[in-house]
Amino acid sequence: MTNSRTPAALVLEDGRVFRGTAYGAEGRTLGEAVFCTGMTGYQETLTDPSYHRQIVVQTAPQIGNTGWNDEDDESARIWVSGYVVRDPARTPSNWRSTRSLDDALVEQGVVGIAGVDTRTLTRHLREQGAMRSGVFSGDALGSDDEMIGEVLASPPMKGADLAGEVTTAEAYVVPAVGERRFRVAALDLGIKSNTPRQMTARGIEVHVLPSSSSLDQLLEIEPDGVFLSNGPGDPATTEHATALTRSVLERRIPLFGICFGNQILGRALGLGTYKMRYGHRGINIPVIDVATGRVAITAQNHGFALEGEPGQRFDSPFGAATISHYCPNDDTVEGVRAEDVPAFSVQYHPEAAAGPHDAAPLFDEFVTLMETAK
Ligand SMILES: NC(=O)CC[C@H](N)C(=O)O
């Protein structure tokens, strides 16, 4: 259970060391330290494959209050490489809870640390940027120099090609709820369970494909639409997915992308990507739709972004395109739309569980795009 007295340390690549006690599994883990500002939804965060190779810091001081249930996982396992909290729940309480968060972390061998001053840590990451880090506890604790050395020897997130590490080994089909109206080929770069669920609820039969699938394998499905999922790593490494996307655009098959998928569509349209200082990770991030001026409150989890200006129109290899959405906090690109081929994508999460659901109608827009193309 929680409140272990085993000493633990979170070590950042710039030499900052935060001391605390072991939480979850004991041992050693390495990854990019990033902070997430969601007050709820820690189970969805932990099981989101986009957090692969990241050590997640929760800014909400109390974590674990509702325990761990058998329904909210976004994938078959916890993907974060480490977990940093301030004050873990001693007594989880929720009618759906089947075990404590601490037990779930131990069961899956996820090394964490509690008792960290997460406010100071978050301010540090906000100023200095997300960076390589490690959590060390028990026998794995070494001298500061040793631990910093291990962190400095670990690979950076920039240039990391990770979709192949999280994608499904085999293609599978998620049937439509009720009558099947459309068939969609979904490229799994780290897809979350709630994404096919949002589509199947709208009469879409979803064929989830491994990230290495060829154009022929995709076309074999005779899809009415193609979906590009979220996923971990640097979008600059997605040559295969970007080439595949270009072939889909050439054939004018309706296409919708989320997060990593937005970065891939952007790249296919000729935009560049860059690593943000500390990214957007939370569940109350505003996004403005340039066409309507409307603001949506969104869930986000990204450390990279597309280059471009809010509302900018640009020439792509597939005709005109627009930066359709942006974040008013920092003018980050949050969506792109092609005007001459049926394709659009967003950097945020319309499938967000536990919400917010402002952006859910984007799945209806995908349906409309497919209806129009038929
Ligand atoms: N959730 C995602 O799809 C993240 C995309 C990409 N790995 C990023 O960090 O920007």
From TrEMBL:
<feature type="binding site">
    <location>
        <position position="304"/>
    </location>
    <ligand>
        <name>L-glutamine</name>
    </ligand>
</feature>
<comment type="function">
    <text>Small subunit of the glutamine-dependent carbamoyl phosphate synthetase (CPSase). CPSase catalyzes the formation of carbamoyl phosphate from the ammonia moiety of glutamine, carbonate, and phosphate donated by ATP, constituting the first step of 2 biosynthetic pathways, one leading to arginine and/or urea and the other to pyrimidine nucleotides. The small subunit (glutamine amidotransferase) binds and cleaves glutamine to supply the large subunit with the substrate ammonia.</text>
</comment>
<keyword id="KW-0547">Nucleotide-binding</keyword>
<keyword id="KW-0055">Arginine biosynthesis</keyword>
<feature type="binding site">
    <location>
        <position position="233"/>
    </location>
    <ligand>
        <name>L-glutamine</name>
    </ligand>
</feature>
<feature type="binding site">
    <location>
        <position position="301"/>
    </location>
    <ligand>
        <name>L-glutamine</name>
    </ligand>
</feature>
<protein>
    <recommendedName>
        <fullName>Carbamoyl phosphate synthase small chain</fullName>
        <ecNumber>6.3.5.5</ecNumber>
    </recommendedName>
</protein>
<feature type="binding site">
    <location>
        <position position="260"/>
    </location>
    <ligand>
        <name>L-glutamine</name>
    </ligand>
</feature>
<dbReference type="InterPro" id="IPR002474">
    <property type="entry name" value="CarbamoylP_synth_ssu_N"/>
</dbReference>
<dbReference type="InterPro" id="IPR035686">
    <property type="entry name" value="CPSase_GATase1"/>
</dbReference>
<keyword id="KW-0028">Amino-acid biosynthesis</keyword>
<feature type="active site" description="Nucleophile">
    <location>
        <position position="259"/>
    </location>
</feature>
<dbReference type="InterPro" id="IPR050472">
    <property type="entry name" value="Anth_synth/Amidotransfase"/>
</dbReference>
<keyword id="KW-0315">Glutamine amidotransferase</keyword>
<dbReference type="Pfam" id="PF00117">
    <property type="entry name" value="GATase"/>
</dbReference>
<dbReference type="GO" id="GO:0004088">
    <property type="term" value="F:carbamoyl-phosphate synthase (glutamine-hydrolyzing) activity"/>
</dbReference>
<keyword id="KW-0436">Ligase</keyword>
<comment type="pathway">
    <text>Pyrimidine metabolism; UMP biosynthesis via de novo pathway; (S)-dihydroorotate from bicarbonate: step 1/3.</text>
</comment>
<feature type="binding site">
    <location>
        <position position="50"/>
    </location>
    <ligand>
        <name>L-glutamine</name>
    </ligand>
</feature>
<dbReference type="InterPro" id="IPR029062">
    <property type="entry name" value="Class_I_gatase-like"/>
</dbReference>
<dbReference type="InterPro" id="IPR036480">
    <property type="entry name" value="CarbP_synth_ssu_N_sf"/>
</dbReference>
<comment type="similarity">
    <text>Belongs to the CarA family.</text>
</comment>
<dbReference type="Pfam" id="PF00988">
    <property type="entry name" value="CPSase_sm_chain"/>
</dbReference>
<comment type="subunit">
    <text>Composed of two chains; the small (or glutamine) chain promotes the hydrolysis of glutamine to ammonia, which is used by the large (or ammonia) chain to synthesize carbamoyl phosphate. Tetramer of heterodimers (alpha,beta)4.</text>
</comment>
<feature type="binding site">
    <location>
        <position position="303"/>
    </location>
    <ligand>
        <name>L-glutamine</name>
    </ligand>
</feature>
<feature type="active site">
    <location>
        <position position="349"/>
    </location>
</feature>
<comment type="pathway">
    <text>Amino-acid biosynthesis; L-arginine biosynthesis; carbamoyl phosphate from bicarbonate: step 1/1.</text>
</comment>
<feature type="binding site">
    <location>
        <position position="263"/>
    </location>
    <ligand>
        <name>L-glutamine</name>
    </ligand>
</feature>
<feature type="binding site">
    <location>
        <position position="231"/>
    </location>
    <ligand>
        <name>L-glutamine</name>
    </ligand>
</feature>
<feature type="domain" description="Carbamoyl-phosphate synthase small subunit N-terminal">
    <location>
        <begin position="6"/>
        <end position="136"/>
    </location>
</feature>
<dbReference type="InterPro" id="IPR017926">
    <property type="entry name" value="GATASE"/>
</dbReference>
<feature type="active site">
    <location>
        <position position="351"/>
    </location>
</feature>
<keyword id="KW-0067">ATP-binding</keyword>
<feature type="region of interest" description="CPSase">
    <location>
        <begin position="1"/>
        <end position="182"/>
    </location>
</feature>
<keyword id="KW-0665">Pyrimidine biosynthesis</keyword>
<dbReference type="InterPro" id="IPR006274">
    <property type="entry name" value="CarbamoylP_synth_ssu"/>
</dbReference>
